[in-house]
């Protein structure tokens, strides 16, 4: 059985892909499957934590034994759900692949193909950064972020950790991570950089939780 390294800790997690509506049937999303976030929720639970999960679109089952699991599909809905639950959390782990932009001119009714032949224009507006907003709270929980990059993974991850002002960041390569059931991650924290082996997301999650617990003592 897993050592109870997070016993008595309250953990809030985000997982999965967000979905930004264009109209009632169409939207903008990404290839996140939610597996890494769900595996982390399970690993935190196994380590004795009280886990609240906020999830967008996921392609795997929600783990059993969570304190709460709330679906919030757009970035704004996810932001609101996180801030409703963030009080009294000890740890916040942002795994969700959140859209940087929403559709500014989303339509209440289904768009019809224009008979004049001109394609509709989709205008974008910036979404709030959930992780940065939690890290900026007066008394933030211990924040863990993820960075999925397609190139210059560690370089961008270092910048992201500094910019969002978070103690621990997990970096991975998009092609190895998103939509896959295994992963290879590097953990960045105040002590340096720790590369984990390529392994299942379940094992990666267990190792991330062990690393996190080590930073809390
Ligand atoms: O900036 P980028 O999206 O690459 O940062 C990734 C990290 O920030 C992830 O931990 C992700 O969950 C979080 N994030 C967020 N809200 C956003 C964008 C990213 O919480 N709007």
TrEMBL record:
Record-listed E.C. numbers: 4.1.1.36, 6.3.2.5
Catalysed reaction equations from the record: (R)-4'-phosphopantothenate + L-cysteine + CTP = N-[(R)-4-phosphopantothenoyl]-L-cysteine + CMP + diphosphate + H(+); N-[(R)-4-phosphopantothenoyl]-L-cysteine + H(+) = (R)-4'-phosphopantetheine + CO2
Cofactor details (free text): Binds 1 FMN per subunit.
Positions that bind CTP: 100, 110, 128-131, 146, 160, 164
GO BP annotations listed: coenzyme A biosynthetic process; pantothenate catabolic process
Domain of life: Bacteria
MF GO annotations: FMN binding; metal ion binding; phosphopantothenate--cysteine ligase activity; phosphopantothenoylcysteine decarboxylase activity
Region (Phosphopantothenate--cysteine ligase): 11-217
Keywords, alphabetical: Decarboxylase, Flavoprotein, FMN, Ligase, Lyase, Magnesium, Metal-binding, Multifunctional enzyme
Pathway it works in: Cofactor biosynthesis; coenzyme A biosynthesis; CoA from (R)-pantothenate: step 3/5; Cofactor biosynthesis; coenzyme A biosynthesis; CoA from (R)-pantothenate: step 2/5
Residues in DNA/pantothenate metabolism flavoprotein C-terminal domain copies: 6-213
GO CC field: phosphopantothenoylcysteine decarboxylase complex
Cofactor(s) listed in the protein's UniProt record: Mg(2+); FMN
Family per similarity comment: In the C-terminal section; belongs to the PPC synthetase family. In the N-terminal section; belongs to the HFCD (homo-oligomeric flavin containing Cys decarboxylase) superfamily.
Role description: Catalyzes two sequential steps in the biosynthesis of coenzyme A. In the first step cysteine is conjugated to 4'-phosphopantothenate to form 4-phosphopantothenoylcysteine. In the second step the latter compound is decarboxylated to form 4'-phosphopantotheine. Catalyzes two steps in the biosynthesis of coenzyme A. In the first step cysteine is conjugated to 4'-phosphopantothenate to form 4-phosphopantothenoylcysteine, in the latter compound is decarboxylated to form 4'-phosphopantotheine.
Protein name in UniProt: Coenzyme A biosynthesis bifunctional protein CoaBC
Organism (species): Paralysiella testudinis
Gene, per the UniProt record: coaBC
